[in-house]
Amino acid sequence: MYHSMNKDEVLKALSSDFSGLTDDEGEEKLSSCGKNIITGKKKKGIIRRFIAQFADFSILALIIASALSYGASLMGGENDFTEPLIILAIVIVNAVIGIVQESRADAAIDALKSMIVQKCTVLRGGVKKEMDSALLVPGDIIYLKAGDKVPADARILSSASLYSDESALTGESLPVEKSDCVLRNDTPVSERTNCLYSSSLITAGHAVCVVTETGMNTAVGRLAGMISEEKEVKTPLSLKLARTGKVMAVSALLCCILLFFVGVLKKYDPLFMFMTAVSLAVAAIPEGLSAIVTVMLALSVSKMAKKKAVVRNLSAVETLGSATCICSDKTGTLTENRMTVKEVSGDRECVLMLMALCSDGVENPTEKAIIESCKENKTDLDKKYVRIDEIPFSSSRKRMLTVNKLNSGYMTLVKGAFDIILPFCSYVYENGGKRNLAPCDKEKLRECCEDMASRGMRVIALAAKKTSAPEKSENNLTFIGMVALSDPLRKEAYSAVRLCRKAGIRVIMITGDHKSTAKAIAEELSIAKGGVLTGEEIDLMDDGEFMRAVNKVSVFARVLPEHKVRIVKALKSLGHIVAMTGDGVNDAPALSAADIGCAMGKGGTEVARSASDMVLTDDNFATIVTAVAEGRVLFDNIKNAIHFLLSSNIGEVFLMMAGFFMGNGAILYPVELLWVNLITDSLPAISLGLDKGDRDIMLRKPKNPQKGFFSDGLFIKIVLEGLLIGVTAYAAFVYGNTRVGGGEALGRTMAFCTLSISQLIHAFSVRSERSVFSTEVPGNKWLNISLIAGVFLQYISCSAPFMCNIFKTVSLDVSSAFKVMLFSLVPLLVSEVSKLTKKGI
């Protein structure tokens, strides 16, 4: 209905006015309307999630087998329910650990969502303020500009050259022109050009609007209400590992089936063999692989957020570690975005005053510097020379136009890049008047611009013309003058670029600035090798020429958004994994095309942030490099955790298979297998995910994304290490079984302890290709804690009488305990020798 009302009627209907709501009115409406958020389906409750942990076939089979075992003991005249209860207890503990892992991942993902807060400019009680868009209520007056995402459904009160992308809502591919007109009551939603809709994007112009609907009452909220449930977050790596887990599960199940039939053929009790086989399947199948990876990803995201890099989707964290090329904007990313007017060409006071009139305010650092350098107050100027029309700045036009009212007549002002403004000029301002612009004048102006740009300064030019009637034509302008602004390089940019070079990452600077400005900055950063390529030169190249140029050139100047996309695509076709920074409306295609799109959190637009994979809250190039390092650490940690889990599981399978094939029967009872799985799988694996990584993590070349996860001999290494763990545990069994005063119970106890402790120690070995004693490998207190806790629990299992009764273990004397430690250290010692041999020491 609001589309058919005039402005006053709309504001009255919403209990608001042109000063906006007061804070008290806003609070009151918020309590009745609720927050301006799109709510999804409720997540599963704790009971449903707990029950879901038992949906795994092998877990259900184990519970059934335990029940059958208890039933068989009752039928045999016994009432021994100890083992079934212990097995059930271990299964429940595993389920609790699973819930904790899922909860940690969910909590981190929810925290990630809360970090990505959409802000908006609101008028409350006549005062402009920035506010969380979730707190908007109907009646709030909001200000929108190009690059903003519309935070709620709204009616336009005033606008200038306003266009909105509503494709997500209406399917219309082209931006729709909007204005503050009054429409017929029966106008369909898709044709209501005086309304803006939540989640649409402002692609051009600016507007003042009043919020009409929020949250689930918006058009997009009503659509969201039709969605059945929230999709589970699955990253490419977790999906890949889920497939790997299935392969490992099938392999483990085949081994367990073989174990069952071998045991039956050797006349062992079928029910016992069934329980043993199922217990081994539960212990050996890496069912928590993808969950552990999700937890690690979530933890990494939390760490990156603390370092000013907010990741918008988990898959970006996986890709970061593989980045081979970072395409960075210059202004605000490599530089401080702290503009200062250093030089003015022309009448200083006149140039600065007219430029201030043709500026919007202090949000733009360039305009802020110009306004601060002008002697006259910006507010007074705007009142004296009222702006009646405008064409806002855009990256495609590279200029801004305003029409201002004079005492008699009007003035058209055009501000922008020098080489864009000069072609529109027919005259030059001189000594209070204008004269024809001669070719020699143009040459002098170009030389002046070139001189300032070659010293690393940004050059902005201004042209104008007086008219008797308002006119937005840009023909026959008078060239007024230029200002040169300096923007110093960030101190950390130098070291970050050097670190990239050591890490095998190529740094490419892409800017809309003048070629000479770009070259001067690039030379400071030592990335100017290969020269500078401009947008105009790119347009003249065919694909072959451009590909060859991209392979050599690392500095691009005067580029348009379409050039950025072409650069990204060319780099990707050359095999690079590309990270791309962007902040503007038209940067969205390039951010989407890149492997990792990095939007600016301070100076970036909501459109750019929506298209990105990661938001830099400090707009700093060094933050990207920090994120890449974190991505590398994450990949290493995930690889190490999987290395540890799979090799440990292979050791368990081999030990049990060896027992039956060598005629010893079941080396471990089902409850012992589950115990080993409980103390060695969860804590050490998660602790490996908390590793800080090798200190030289950024001195390596990026990993090749074409290589498989188990490339470079990792799979063979995992198998061999698993066999070594299994052989060592079997050797401990043989020793205990055959030593004087020993026997099967001692042998089983020694194998039980050796299998657990060797796996706990093995976690330290998989952390790095370096020795565990290397100073280049930082300490990991969580892994130390998991070792101490695991060894203590294992000690309890064979020393406390009630535990010995449960696990059928015997207490170890000093000599046997010492032998267990020696056996447990064998895999570590073999790994250390292998590492030394590999390094040629």
Quote the distance from N terminus to C terminus.
81 Å
**Rg, Cα atoms, Å:** 34 Å
Number of strand segments = 23
Q: Record the strand order, biggest sheet.
A: 8-23-22-21-9-18-20-19
Which class best fits the helix and strand makeup? alpha/beta
Polypeptide structure, described:
This protein is an alpha/beta fold. It contains 30 helices and 23 strands. The radius of gyration is 34 Å and the shape is elongated. About 1% of the residues have low confidence.
Give a summary of the structure in a few sentences:
This protein is of the alpha/beta class and 841 residues long. It has 30 helices and 23 strands.
Question: Any chance you could write out the topology, listing elements then pairs?
Answer:
Elements: H1 7-13, H2 23-33, H3 46-52, H4 57-75, H5 82-115, E1 119-124, E2 127-132, E3 141-145, E4 153-165, H6 167-170, E5 176-178, E6 195-196, E7 201-213, H7 219-224, H8 236-265, H9 270-284, H10 289-306, E8 309-311, H11 315-320, E9 325-329, E10 340-345, H12 348-357, H13 365-373, H14 378-384, E11 387-391, E12 399-405, E13 410-417, H15 418-421, E14 425-430, E15 433-436, H16 439-453, E16 458-467, E17 477-486, H17 491-502, E18 506-510, H18 515-524, E19 532-534, H19 535-539, H20 543-550, E20 555-557, H21 561-573, E21 578-582, H22 588-593, E22 596-600, H23 606-611, E23 614-616, H24 621-661, H25 670-688, H26 714-738, H27 744-765, H28 781-797, H29 801-807, H30 814-838
Parallel strand pairs: 9-18, 9-21, 14-17, 18-20, 19-20, 21-22, 22-23
Antiparallel strand pairs: 1-2, 1-3, 3-7, 4-5, 4-6, 4-7, 8-23, 10-17, 11-12, 12-13, 13-16, 14-15, 16-17
Helix pairs in contact: 4-5, 4-9, 5-10, 5-25, 8-9, 8-10, 8-24, 9-25, 10-24, 12-13, 16-18, 24-25, 24-26, 24-27, 25-27, 25-28, 26-27, 26-30, 27-28, 27-30
